[in-house]
Amino acid sequence: MAPAPLLMTVDEYFKTPETVMPMELVFGVMRVAESPTPRHQSAVRHLLLALNAHVEERQLGEMWVAPLDVVLSEVRALIVQPDLFFVSNGRAPIVTDRVRGAPDLVIEVLSPNPRIGKTEERVRWFAEYGVRECWLIHQQDVSVTVIRFEDRRVASRDVFGRRQRIVSRVLPEFSATLDEIFG
């Protein structure tokens, strides 16, 4: 039987060497993954460009891109690095030396083989720690699942195909399809 992994604190995690490799701290266990594929990064870039233009034009807050640590719980040693996320002006104080708290919107570009952890596990954390909405981008079938959270639980899941306008409660004026975003 293999020994249990040594648990890290948030402070120990922050002392690890800086890297662009995806790294997360999950209840004290550090997870590291290989770098993403060009297809994955292309999707992230297109989403960032579309959403950043929308957010900046309306002065709603700021879009952020991985790798950037989001400390969901310092006490439970839970740090994630979503592909993209949005922090509204109202939540801007969570952005300090790190992002210390839940973003308004988290976007994960899904690959056939997830790089770090299980998607549904991550969705539960986003709900539990106060994220308002999560978009799961499905590259295989070119669709997006928009998950809205209320009272720290999943309130709804809506799937939008490549030609359907994405509906978001966090960014209600955003109106684009995945075909438009990805060109």
Report on this model:
The chain is α+β, with helices and mostly antiparallel strands. The protein is built from four helices and eleven strands, in the order αββαββββββαβββα. It has a six-stranded mixed β-sheet. Strands 2-1-5-4-7 form a five-stranded mixed β-sheet, with no helix packed on it. 22% of the residues lie in helices and 31% in strands. The chain has one domain: tt1808, chain A (Alpha-Beta Complex). 29% of the residues are buried.
Short account of what is shown:
The protein is α+β, with helices and mostly antiparallel strands. The protein has four helices and eleven strands, in the order αββαββββββαβββα. The strands form two sheets. It has a six-stranded mixed β-sheet.
Secondary-structure blueprint of this entry?
Blueprint: H1 10-14, E1 23-26, E2 29-32, H2 38-58, E3 61-65, E4 70-73, E5 78-80, E6 84-88, E7 99-100, E8 105-110, H3 119-128, E9 133-138, E10 143-150, E11 153-161, H4 178-182
Parallel strand pairs: 4-7, 8-9
Antiparallel strand pairs: 1-2, 1-5, 3-6, 4-5, 6-8, 9-10, 10-11
